[in-house]
Amino acid sequence: MRKLIISAVLGGILIVASLYFAGVIAGSKDNRRPTAPKVIKTVFVDTVQNGTVPLIVPANGNLKAKKRVELYSEVQGVFRPGSKLFRTGQEYSAGQTLIRIDASEYFASVQSAKSVLYNLLTSIMPDLRLDYPEIYPKWQNYLNSFDLDKTTPPLPEMDTEQEKFFITGRQIVSNYYNVKNLEQRLSKYTMTAPFNGILTEALVTEGSLVRPGQKLGEFINTGLYELEVSVSKTYGDYLKVGNKVELSNLEKTATYVGEVTRVNGRVDQGSQTITVFIEVSGEDLKEGQYLEATLEAREETDAIEINRALLLDNDQIFVVKDSILDLMFVDPVYFTDKTVVLKNVPDGEVIVSKPLTGAYAGMLVKIFNEGPTQN
């Protein structure tokens, strides 16, 4: 019995001790959440000062030589070698022979026609001496200057009707124009370079048989190029001939200055764009090269230009008032791929100049520094 009482007392003491320590442990636990530290984000700002903003219209296209000649044959014959090989990339100076077609057979027919004309002139000289002694010296001088190996000289002026009837009746005039026609065609057997340039296409080789109407190649001037670009019809009235244009290559490693030389007066019905031609020159330019152009269409007064990422819902931007962000409604007038031109932003307004993640109206911010005045 005594042992039972002792065991009961010890059990009660253990239960009371367990409850006490459980209460102490439970009371030591803090269920309150820690207060989050208040983070004030830093923003970059600019002070607005409205001014004149040029509206730059981006465009692009491929260069084409302003002077180019497609070479076609008007006669038939064998292509003979010249001083230079007729190959792509070959350079020629103005006046150098590009193509020489064998004209031996045709040259003989020209000489035959010239000899017929010469014989006719010789046959009328006795009659001129007897019947028209006053005009005899003139025709005698012409006959003396007649050279079968040179181009036929123009006929002397016929002053009287009797002289015209006499010369025409002896078929001098008809034979003369027949010879000039043959000489003109003989000149087509040789093609010369009309300007300094380079052969960009060669479709025949020496020894080939050339036929009338056959394309032989293409020759361009490498000193002057044109860039054909299409811009929206909205800016058609502002694009003027003579405007300077800044051009750059695709890698942005080289820039050039071009000039608007022509503006098409017709709007493309499908794309509603206007074609503009820009003239540019440069030693390192090549035909077919891709260039990007920035055309100054017009100027917008009382406006500013900002990063397009700063525009919210196409009509709002963030401003800072007493270290608190606020939204301001604006009027965007022109968009580019990176910037936007705005109006109705008062001078002196402090606007956010760089995008801020998680920004909202009423947010407490800290200004990092005063950036350059926004124009």
Structural summary, described in words:
The chain folds into 4 domains: 43-53 and 301-370, Beta Barrel (conserved putative lor/sdh protein from methanococcus maripaludis s2 fold), CATH 2.40.420; 57-64 and 222-299, Efflux pump adaptor protein, beta barrel domain (Elongation Factor Tu (Ef-tu), domain 3, Beta Barrel), CATH 2.40.30; 68-96 and 193-220, RNA polymerase II/Efflux pump adaptor protein, barrel-sandwich hybrid domain (OB fold (Dihydrolipoamide Acetyltransferase, E2P), Beta Barrel), CATH 2.40.50; 105-187, no CATH class. 24% of the residues lie in helices and 37% in strands. It has 5 helices and 21 strands. A hairpin with a 5-residue loop joins strand 12 (244-249) and strand 13 (255-267). Helix 2 packs antiparallel against helix 3 (136-145) and helix 2 runs antiparallel to helix 5. The longest helix is centred in the first third of the chain and has 28 residues, at 104-131. 17% of the residues are buried.
Summary, kept brief:
This protein is of the alpha+beta class. It has helices at residues 2-28, 104-131, 136-145, 161-169, 172-186; strands at residues 41-47, 51-65, 68-72, 77-80, 91-92, 97-101, 190-192, 197-202, 209-210, 215-220, 225-232, 244-249, 255-267, 273-280, 290-307, 316-321, 324-329, 331-335, 339-343, 350-352, 365-370.
